[in-house]
Inverse folding.
């Protein structure tokens, strides 16, 4: 009989220990809630950090784009200025050419007139 009571006691003790392990106490529950809250806070912080990093990258990309646009505008202004100078040089070259042609015509006319006068003078 002692053996039977001992076996029953052992079974009851084992069952009590097993149920004690599976049933969380208030302290365990509070600890789990705290850990879950800390995990959520850590996840939120990681998300916020990722968003901040993305915003920073976007600002830097925008800054680079603006700088590139400024450089392109400056290059365009330089090209326009060079084109304007080239046009002025072309106009001046055309003017010089026309002046030289006029002088050549005038000299030719003068020579022709001088020859005519010399011919009339010799007659």
């Amino acid at each position: 009989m002692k053996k039977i009571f001992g076996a029953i006691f052992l079974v009851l003790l084992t069952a009590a220990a097993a149920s004690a392990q599976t049933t969380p106490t208030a302290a365990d529950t509070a600890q789990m809630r705290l850990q879950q809250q800390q995990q959520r806070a850590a996840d939120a912080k990681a998300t916020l950090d990722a968003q901040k990093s993305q915003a920073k990258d976007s600002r830097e990309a925008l800054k680079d784009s603006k700088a590139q646009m400024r450089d392109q505008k400056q290059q365009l202004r330089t090209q326009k200025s060079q084109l304007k100078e080239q046009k002025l040089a072309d106009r001046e070259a055309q003017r010089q050419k026309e002046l030289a042609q006029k002088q050549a015509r005038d000299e030719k006319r003068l020579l022709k007139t001088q020859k005519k006068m010399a011919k009339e003078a010799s007659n």
Observations:
- Residues 26-122 form the longest helix (97 residues).
- The chain has a mean pLDDT of 88.
